[in-house]
Amino acid sequence: MPDTPFAPVIRGDEPGSFPHSVLAERHPAIIRQVRDAFPFGPAQHAALDELLRNCTEGTVGPLPADAPDRDRWHAWGLPDHTGRSWYDVPWLWSESYFYRRLLDAVGYVGPGAWQGIDPFRPFKRAELDAPETDAELAALDGLRDLPEEERARALLHGSLWGNRADLGFRLSAADAGTRQPVPALVADDSETLWSLLPPAGTGTLVLVADNAGRELLPDLLLIAHLLTEGRAARAVLHVKPYPYYVSDATTADVVDALNRLRAAPGAAGGYGRVLRSAMADGRLTVRAHPFSCAPLPYADMPDDLRAEFAAATLTVVKGDLNYRRLVGDRFWPPTTPFRETTAYFPGPVAALRTLKSEVITGLSAATEAALVAAEGQRWRTSGTHALIQADPSGGARRG
Ligand SMILES: O=P(O)(O)OC[C@H]1O[C@](O)(CO)[C@@H](O)[C@@H]1O
């Protein structure tokens, strides 16, 4: 990570700013929605009341003494942040800890009858079961007769724009999933990406997933295509070990998505069968590494994860949150080269992301100027722009 004094870490301490609104408005809205979605008992309601008060007016507190991940959170900076306002610690840290505390409040962490009950499941299920999902899956039939390269491109774009269907994001932008027309990419390194996944490839693709539902389905379809067409011999899908940022995919969500595909008619069902058999023979594996829910940038990843990414032919990192973690959650000058911010990454890496937060790198000066002229700074957070960025160097520049 370059040592740049011009890229301050993002915090939520400026009233009126986007990060501040997430802490002050979005988090209370999420508590409300979760409370509405479940028939919770008095202890859960009281814990949600306390979390609401604490995360908006209070200071960061400790985890329960018996929390199974207490040591991990200590290593991730909890002692340094305890006693500080949620608005004053790094925004990424604050958001991540909010989701961890929400799981405590609803009893997910246990022990008890609510242990393991995903508080976001009703929202994720509704999206998977929506008629729009049927229509999207049916559209796959129209790809069948296209040349492989065109199918690959269509599926890559499906996975990219699937990131717009993020449920947390929709809490404050109801039409974000349907806005038309799809705007141009602000950066497009797809040629580099495809050069890393040539036909007859023998390598391993790692896909670091973002959201469940209508983002995970196209991610899985892309993986199925790459395996079937021999652009990757194996794929590893990284998901979250516990519910996070409302819609982030967990292993349970992968199971739901695979079942959804299996039950679909036409080409979608075929992809579903390909994926199940790839799971059965080990060509597709699912990983839920604890660091996937860490409140830290990937530059701080542990050695075992570093070794996994180093061994991959390509790691594809999906979504806004993963992008923030990949390049560092900082106010980079937008023309900062992407490859400068990913120089620490141990293998070739690509990002597929729609823009939903202020972090951005790798723009040309002309693109930045055109975006600002057209929209002021709205393009950074509106979810209407997207990027495909790739760094093929694989940490080769590290000394
Ligand atoms: O689902 P995605 O693409 O990671 O986007 C989630 C984004 O929404 C937010 O929660 C709020 O903008 C961001 O913190 C996060 O980057």
Describe the protein in words.
The chain is an alpha/beta fold and 399 residues long. It is built from 17 helices and seven strands. Residues 167-182 have low confidence and may be disordered. The chain is globular. The protein folds into two domains: 18-119, Transcription Elongation Factor S-II, Chain A (Up-down Bundle); 126-391, Uncharacterised protein PF01937, DUF89, domain 3 (Rossmann fold, 3-Layer(aba) Sandwich), CATH 3.40.50.10880. 6-O-phosphono-beta-D-fructofuranose (F6P) binds at residues 22, 95, 163, 166, 168-169, 210-211, 245, 319-321, 324, 356-357.
Q: Which terms would index this structure?
A:
alpha/beta, methyltransferase activity, binds 6-O-phosphono-beta-D-fructofuranose, hydrolase, 2 domains, seven-stranded mixed sheet, 7 strands, Rossmann fold, single chain, Transcription Elongation Factor S-II, Chain A, 9% strand
